[in-house]
Amino acid sequence: MTSTQNNLLNTKCPLTGKPVTELQNPIHCMDCKHIYEKEPVIHYISTKKPHPRCPVAGCPKILQVGRVVCDALLTIEIDEMRLASATNINSTMVEDFYRS
């Protein structure tokens, strides 16, 4: 496991329940760093006026359209998580093969 994987605060989108490795357009809040699918969080922000709170239990941050972004580091972290998952699956398959 690399150090950047530890930076992901949530492994599933709090609004859709999808794993972050399956999100089509992942974005994160610049204030609390929670990760969301872009379209559902923009919809959530626009419908929960005047102060839409982060939907993660216990997070007091207010979400704002201009403060939820996708940056290069987020993309790298998610790609590393995908790679680690694929590596774990492959090592499990090899291990099971040798046990037979």
Placed side by side, the strands forming the largest sheet appear as 2-1-3
Distance separating the two termini: 28 Å
What number of structural domains do the residues give? Answer: 1
CATH superfamily: Zinc/RING finger domain, C3HC4 (zinc finger)
Quaternary organisation of the protein chains: single chain
Textual characterization of the structure:
With 100 residues, the chain is mainly alpha-helical. The protein has helices spanning 38-47, 72-99; strands spanning 26-29, 35-37, 68-69. It has two helices and three strands; from the N terminus they run ββαβα. A three-stranded antiparallel beta sheet has the order 2-1-3. It has a single domain (3-99), classed as Zinc/RING finger domain, C3HC4 (zinc finger) (Herpes Virus-1). Strand 1 and strand 2 form a beta hairpin.
Short description:
The chain is mostly helical. Helices cover 38% and strands 9% of the residues.
What's the arrangement of secondary structure elements?
Elements: E1 26-29, E2 35-37, H1 38-47, E3 68-69, H2 72-99
Distinctive features:
Herpes Virus-1, disordered N terminus, mainly alpha, 3-stranded antiparallel sheet, 2 helices, 100 residues
